[in-house]
Amino acid sequence: MHPVPAAVLRSLPEAVRRARRIEAALSGGLDSVVLLHILAQLKDRLNAEISAVHVHHGLHPEADGWLGFCRSYCAALGVPLRWQKVIVEPAGKGIEAAARQARYRVFAQSPADIIAAAHHADDQTETFFLAALRGGGLRALAAMPELRPLAENPALQLWRPLLPYTRAELAAYAAEHRLEYVTDPANSDPSYLRNWLRHDGLPHWRRHSPQIDRHIRTAVALLQDELAVLQEAVEVDRQAVCDAHGFHTERWRQLTPARRRQSIRLLLLEHGGGLKNKAFLADFCRVLYEIGAGEAQWRLNGQILIASRNRLYFLPEGWQRQYTPAAGQGGLQEWQARGWQFRSFRRGLPPEMLGQTLRIRPIESRDLIATPAGRKPPKQILHEHGIPPFIRSCWPLLTDAENRPLALANLCADSRFAVSDGRIPCDPAFDRFVPPNPA
User: Fold this and answer.
1) Is the CB of residue 356 less than 8 Å from the CB of residue 426?
2) 398 C-beta neighbours (distance < 10 Å), count
3) What is the pLDDT of residues 172-217, one digit of tens each?
4) Residue 326 gets which letter from DSSP?
5) Has residue 276 got a pLDDT over 60?
6) How far apart are CA 55 and CA 58, in angstroms?
7) Beta strand pairing status for 21-25 and 49-56?
8) CB distance 28 to 187 below 8 Å
9) pLDDT of 366-403, one tens digit each?
10) pLDDT tens figures, 304-350
């Protein structure tokens, strides 16, 4: 066996050893052609089904020909090919970033356990310098790990088995095995910063520092180790500030400023997929720290973020329509069929009352609910139970067929009708807004 496949086999991550299906990203270029050839050779030893995926970006007149090449190559290797044509929309990202985003969306749809990408040692060096030139932090400078969850689909692992090898080594492998491949003219366009690095910047620096690639690979390994420690610390903080009810901003304020930023960065990435910019992160942290138990709102990636009463909520655009109950009526079984739950409470409604026709509707200004302290407007009761102000106008109210209030969903029954160990209607969607120990 050629030394490269043998070395790849010796250093397999455990997740790859367990994989039952590996899908290789195949552009048709040198690197991806070599990768697929190596995986096809290792198919029996990997104990996994090998397939390929090609993304047709439609950015070059020869793109159809590249797809044809990939089809023929996969047929020759006996490897199934999945392909998809995408529309690349820069929208302020730049054509390279937009193409990558479209490509990774296709990868995320893979039925495989592992997506194998053909990034190599020269790519790693270029990625490090690009991060430095663009002002990247530790995560960016740590460049590309060998294995990581795919951000667009964390159930998938992205595997880069060729990172130890240079492009020259891959070219020698292709020549030895007489592998053909296609060449994208865009890879020579110096208007792209990566291409300038590859063809001008790095060759110049290599003449002055012949060991630069080895030094950069050493630096990247150290940075990845340090990044792992940072991620462990962020996870510890996450467990400290998050509970079953979500993100607790009062606990978050007890962290140091740097740890607050890291916690919020992780939280926003998990919910939105990406931050607007560093200024947004800094301003978000500043406002969230200063408002205390007050309320503030932000828009991010199609979501509304609301901080209220020391909690942070992620809601979809137009969340009011989703949470405002449409007036309706029916029996207990009908409401249960719609997803409502009738849970036991220390003081709830008796079975005979729940057996009649029930209405669930939004709160009205004239509504009053009896409590041990007298009759009160529902919104006052919501305030006393610690319900965030922004959701109070949407809170569901249970009434009888004559429109008399019987209970506030998820919270309490009208004291005139409440009995020991009764039940209260609950919409699970509203559980997130009820404090752990409501008043």
Assistant:
1) no
2) 23
3) 999 999 999 999 887 778 888 888 999 899 999 999 999 999 999 9
4) P
5) no
6) 9
7) parallel
8) no
9) 999 999 999 999 999 999 999 999 999 999 999 999 99
10) 999 999 999 999 999 999 999 888 889 888 999 999 999 999 999 99
Residue 32 labelled as part of a binding site: yes
Q: Which residues of 320-331 are buried (b: 16+ CB within 10 A; e: fewer)?
A: eeebebeeeeee
| Residue of 273, 274, 252, 272 whose CA lies nearest to 263 | 252
Instruction: Tell me the CATH number of domain 223-317, given options 2.40.420, 3.10.20, 1.20.59, 2.60.120.
Output: 1.20.59
Annotated binding residue at 130?
no
Closest by CA position to 51, among listed 116, 120, 147, 119: 116
Domain ranges of the chain: 3-208, 223-317, 321-433
30 is in an annotated binding site: yes
- Strand 396-400 and strand 405-408: the pairing is antiparallel
pLDDT in tens, 408-429: 999 999 999 999 989 999 999 9
| 29 labelled ligand-binding | yes
| Domain 3-208, CATH number (from 1.10.1670.10, 3.30.365.10, 3.90.1150.10, 3.40.50.620) | 3.40.50.620
Distance CA 22, CA 97 (A): 25
Instruction: Tell whether residue 72 is among the known ligand binding residues.
Output: no
Task: State the Cα–Cα distance between residues 330 and 336, nearest whole angstrom.
Answer: 10
CA-to-CA distance for 287 and 24, rounded, in angstroms?
44
Residue 321: which residues within 8 A CB-CB, separation 6 or more?
A: none
Residue type, 422: G
Give CA–CA dist 301/177, Å, rounded: 47
SS3 state of residue 59: coil
